[in-house]
Design goal:
This protein is an all-alpha fold and 233 residues long. The chain has one domain. It contains eleven helices and no strands. It is globular, with a radius of gyration of 17 Å. The two termini are 25 Å apart. This is Nitrate reductase molybdenum cofactor assembly chaperone.
């Protein structure tokens, strides 16, 4: 997708949300939920929109809180105006740092530590027998969710470890999307419902990130941008 260069709209301050209570899921159900979220969180191009009916059918057997969120977003994509959806997606995920879908960004920000974090993601994929080849950085949330869905038992375990290690970032993303009233909030909420409960230490990190944002030391990471053109708010 091309990235549009225009000034961000005035932001809405996100507030930390209460954690969602996990929904019991077996391994197969979690894989379906994660694959559905991976597809629905992708840029709404023709392929994503064409997949939405299949996603909606696939999640029909999931627990209601997960099913309704994923099926609802699929319906929104199917019934929405494609041009408006694409513009909204870019304005949300490309132009708002709080809505970054790059998990290591929240912990490492635009610092040299980010590079080391990305290497760990690459190593994790290789340990699971996968290579990230879609042109996105390896910490891209839909890619991690796809690993969780498509991997064998070891792959799912590795993906689960990555998601757990970056749960604070996922929670900040959920809060930011909710504050915007974004339809993509539903997919992130569905993911959170499949993860273990948020512990006290993670909740404290989320509170810090919501208030102060990630660390800053601009290094110009290729594929993500400099990070200096957008305020944390």
């Amino acid at each position: 997708m091309s990235r549009l260069a225009f000034l961000p709209r005035p932001g809405v301050r996100a507030k930390q949300l209460d954690p969602l209570a996990p929904v019991p899921l077996d391994d197969g159900g979690r894989a379906v939920a994660h694959m559905a979220a991976s597809l629905l969180l992708a840029y709404p191009d023709d392929d994503t929109l064409a997949a939405a009916p299949t996603v909606r059918d696939a999640v029909a057997g999931l627990p209601v809180p997960v099913r309704d969120r994923l099926a609802g977003l699929a319906t929104t994509l199917l019934e929405g105006d494609p041009v408006a959806l694409r513009a909204d997606y870019v304005a949300t995920f490309d132009l708002k740092r709080r809505c970054a879908m790059y998990l290591s960004y929240y912990a490492a920000g635009d610092t040299r530590r980010r590079g080391h974090a990305l290497v760990r993601f690459v190593e994790a994929y290789r340990a699971a027998g996968f290579e990230a080849t879609d042109g996105e950085l390896p910490d891209y949330l839909p890619t991690v969710l796809e690993l969780s869905a498509r991997g064998d038992a070891d792959g799912a375990r590795i993906a689960g470890t990555l998601l757990a290690a970056h749960r604070d970032g996922i929670e900040v993303l959920r809060s930011a999307l909710a504050s915007l009233g974004s339809p993509w909030t539903a997919a992130v909420e569905a993911v959170c419902l499949t993860l273990p409960p948020v512990d006290a230490a993670t909740a404290a990190r989320v509170a810090d990130l919501v208030t102060a944002g990630p660390p800053a030391e601009l290094v110009g990471l290729s594929g993500y941008g400099n990070g200096d053109e957008l305020p944390w708010e």
